[in-house]
Amino acid sequence: MIRTVLTEIGIFLVPFAVYAIFLIATRSGVTLPASWPLDMIAKLTLVALVMVIVSFVLLAELTGAPPNSTYVPAHIENGKLVPGVEK
Asked: 87 in a domain, yes or no?
């Protein structure tokens, strides 16, 4: 679960990192408040949210068990732990 959350946070931060790299490349001053106007932050936030939503949709569609599968939980057989499986 933590990996999924950190992945989504990373995806959210990508547009801001790209913009910061752009500012470094153009020598515009990454730390100057004038380089981060409110309209640019709003655009970057919108792009970041769209990217996170798309990644959630892709995560839901492309991962997990196949449709109509049955989960058999982990159990003990003959004194040994048998891991859970999808059937």
From this structure: no
